[in-house]
Amino acid sequence: MTDTPRIRTRFAPSPTGLLHIGGARTALFNFLFARHHGGEFLLRIEDTDRARSTAEATQVILDGLAWLGLTADAPPVYQTSREARHREVALQLLEQGNSYRCFATKEELDQMRAEAIAAGRPPRYDGRWRDRDASEAPEGTPFAIRLRAPREGATEVDDLVQGTVRVANAELDDMIILRSDGTPTYLHAVVVDDHDMGITHVIRGDDHLTNTFRQIQIYHAMGWETPRFAHIPLIHGADGAKLSKRHGAVSVLEFEREGFLPEALCNYLLRLGWGHGDAEILSRDEAISLFDLDGVGRAASRMDYAKLTHLNGVWLRQADDARLAEDVIRRLSENRDLTLDDTAKARIQLLMPALKERAKTLVELAQSAAFLARPLPLPFEPKAEAQLTEEAREMLAALAEKLANTEFTAAGVDAALRAFAEESGKKLGQVAQPLRAALTGSTTSPPIDATLAALGRTEALARIAAVSHS
Ligand code: GLU
Question: pLDDT grade, residue 238 (50/70/90)?
Fold first, then answer.
């Protein structure tokens, strides 16, 4: 019986800023790959850069992942908590002769660098302590530990997205794995953690590809099995430049604020750089059953905000009404001009099936629902004001009498409006448009019957009275 290890992936963000959607997509691919193969998805917070890592940034990452529904299968591993282990491995390499103490001073290294640049060579460590004995260093000189990297041959990665990529070992110098202050370098810490966490597949942005060769050298020096690597292309803006703030929202929580649904954002990020035939709208379950790395393309993807907004509209129409109402109420509760009492909340819930048909984001949805919570007198948009001519106001006064005795369901008010239009020799639109203006302060709303029914008789009549008596 062969013992194939269970697939295990990880997302390893550095908590130095926001959760960028590029990172979110990396997390999504790791999550989907693990789920597709019945494996595990882990999270590691790479907080070794203590000066730049913050607890707030960690929280933003955790919140963003929770919002996207990409929760890990185990509590997060904090990289700083593992420093003793990183040191232990560096010392083990030293004992094995795979690493050595380097006593070069900062001045020496600066000079080495300057000379290389002046001679047009890439700045690389020249290996001056590689074969020297530590006893040659003056007593008490601080030292770093460097990997004794192979000088002959090549290091190769058989990447699941990029194919086979190779670099001549002569191009790579002996990197530091443990600094003179005893702290591990980032490249070393990642390898030790991935190994100890049993990571079988490292799926990350292709900006890390060059790190991979150095990391593979550490695996080889330790005699550890290397995981499989998959370097996915970064997300670019529409102009082809690396995605940044000037293109639009980039942080996951910004998309949330702007009214995107997590399932729409995940769906969009999945389709960005991964394809399965023509499938555009994919639920989480469908994505899990279809996702694999062979569908990930090698070209950089371009962020298309219009397409994301379109997808969001599709997901919004499929979303549960109670959930949408709750979100809209939360957004509207920040607006002090509104009265969000239980009656207003009930109106929002009642009209949600009609409201969600016309909105593309939750922000738009909330704006379209605001009139339901607006106290009288309503503010009127100029176009709505124009509807409320003297004649229209008189008509609305007459209509109010009819509505006073109408059953306030969508069907009931629809029948009453049609009868009223017929009796007064008007087209339905001639009645509905001024009525919409009176009820909502604007010229757009869901169908007028549903709007009336959601407001309820008392409120609808109060809104009509407010314009017909003025
Ligand atoms: N901490 C790295 C980053 O945030 C990721 C490293 C990795 O995935 O190996 O870019």
Answer: confident
- Please tell me whether the overall predicted TM-score, pTM, comes out greater than 0.85 for this model: yes
Give the total number of structural domains in the chain. Answer: 3
Ligand 1 centroid–CA 50 distance in Å is 15
Q: What is the per-residue burial (b if ≥16 Cβ within 10 Å, else e) of 377-407?
A: ebebeeebeebbeeebbebbeebbeebeebe
CA-closest candidate to residue 25, choices 252, 269, 375, 340:
269
One domain, residues 93 and 182: yes
Known catalytic membership, residue 402: no
Task: Locate the ligand 1 atom nearest the alpha carbon of residue 211 and give its number.
Answer: 9
Domain that holds residue 115: 81-186
- Residues lining ligand 1, Cβ inside 6 A: 12-14, 46, 190, 204, 208
Catalytically annotated residue among 242, 245, 426, 427: 245
Flag whether pLDDT at 297 surpasses 80: yes
Nearest to 294 by CA among 144, 418, 163: 163
Give the span between the Cα atoms of 57 and 198, in whole angstroms: 26
Which DSSP string corresponds to 21-70?
A: HHHHHHHHHHHHHHHHTT-EEEEEE----TTT--HHHHHHHHHHHHHHT-
Please indicate, yes or no, whether residues 398 and 329 belong to a single structural domain of this protein. Answer: no
Q: Are strands 40-45 and 77-78 parallel, antiparallel or unpaired?
A: parallel
Q: What is the pLDDT of residues 136-152, one digit of tens each?
A: 988 889 999 999 999 99
Altogether, the residues listed in the chain come to a count of: 470
Mark whether 334 and 401 lie in a shared domain.
Answer: no
Identify whether 29 is part of a domain: no
Taking 90 as the threshold, does the pLDDT of residue 4 lie above it? no
Q: For residues 28 and 70, what is the distance between their CA atoms, to the nearest angstrom?
A: 7
| 155 within a domain of the structure (yes/no) | yes
- pLDDT for residue 393: 96
Q: Which numbered atom of ligand 1 lies nearest the CA of 207?
A: 10
Q: What is the CATH number of the domain that holds 154?
A: 3.90.800.10
Establish if 442 belongs to a structural domain: yes
